[in-house]
Please model this.
Amino acid sequence: MKLAVVILAAGRGERMNSPLPKVLHGIFDKPMLQCVIDSASGLKPSKIVIVVGKNYGEIKDAINKSPHPPFIKGGREGITKGKQSSLSFVIQKKPNGTGDALVRAKSALGGLKDFIGTILVLNGDVPLITSETLKKFLSLHLRGKNDISLISFAAANPASYGRILRDRNSRINSIVEDKDATEAQRKINEVNSGVYAIKSGALALLKEIPLNAAKGEYYLTDIIGIAGNKGYKINAYCIGSEDEMMGVNTIPELMKARKIFRERLADAWIKKGVIFFDHDSVFISDSVVIGNNTTIYPDVCLEGRTEIGRGCTIYPNVRIVDSVIKDGVVVKDSTVIEGSVIRAKAVVGPFAHIRPGCDIGSEAKIGNFVEVKKSVLGGGTKASHLSYLGNASIGKGVNIGAGTITCNYDGKKKSRTTIEDGAFIGSDTQLIAPVRVGRGAYIGAGSTITKCVPAMSLSVSRVEQKNIEGWARKKFKIQSSKFKVKKKGNK
Ligand code: UD1
Ligand code: CA
Model:
């Protein structure tokens, strides 16, 4: 079967009361439209055509700017799942309705105009739809040899949807929008999801859709009645759940969709053996992978292409983005990890910031108020307190004392600091890059290191300490007679 997908995303989205185009509102870390594109990509269509309005540039930028890098060093194969199909954008200058939007897709794209196969039409504001449901729907459509099929569902509150009208043999004959429905029709709770499969031959019917005078729009839903009257084979499959098929037109609906999405993800991980203390407060992107026996505390965000290993503990207020966390890692409270690899049994945090491009070795320890950027730390290396490590290659078993700073930027360029295995960097050391500290070398606390330090040596660059006996006593006597220094033995 040859399949093309058209996603309608050009509507005004007025009910959102927001300057952001409706389809760019995020379910979690990706816009609604991206969720729909990802589900459509799961069907491997020959193309995906997105109908956008006058905010074309904004939408294209948000979609093309993949929110997450395609590859994480150290990640498992497969974490880059959901490769996006090729996208084309078509502009619908005026939002003249869903029927008009599909006409734009048909006429503006030469390829689609001559396309022979199945066209799957999706709404950009139905973000929770899954590839699995779409696959099932397409197979029903093909098996039924229908000209047009659609997915319907039973809605607890059908008010914002088109109602499915069926004849006495339960065959669909048309769809009526809420605004145009009679009181009796409004009571029908089987509604249109906005997902259609259309045989390319039936696209000719689009030009017969009349203008809905009340709304000034061409309703795609009218194609059903027209097709039925002309003897085309039409069918509505009530296969969607309300949670999956919900349309998002307002901010309260967006909040509801986020809640459903969050519960869906958490439930799936709970079944696979992930332990949550309060899964209602945890946000997990659908591209995240979590190993079993990992414990996740409240208020944790796991975003993008993140992979968490087995037996890890993620304490509260942690945000991990596009990172690989190997087995047995402990991430303590209020830590941010971005675009990095944390190897087995390392401990990171509390209050640590691992910025993109880091590789933290197994059993390493990154403690409070330590920031690491574009750096590699070997196994067992410790930076326990108050440090900045940027553009550094640090070997195994290195001790980074409190307050150590790699001075990597001279105002123009960044330079690297290399610290070899087993070195000991005393507290409050500044390493002025480019610089190298050899294997097993010691740096005295408070040193400013500007030259390379040979292996197994001691380097101290601080000013030698002088003690001036009686200095304070003398100073106080001169400055004020009030500050008499008591002599030893005085009461
Ligand atoms: C639409 C359906 C309704 C269905 C519901 C499912 C119509 C007339 N009604 O109603 O039967 O129950 O979806 O969620 O189709 N769009 C365009 N161009 C336009 C207008 C809309 O591209 O000129 C896009 C929107 O961006 C949106 C989608 O089409 O992604 C649906 O439009 P919307 O206005 O939200 O339709 P609903 O009132 O929800
Ligand atoms: Ca809608």
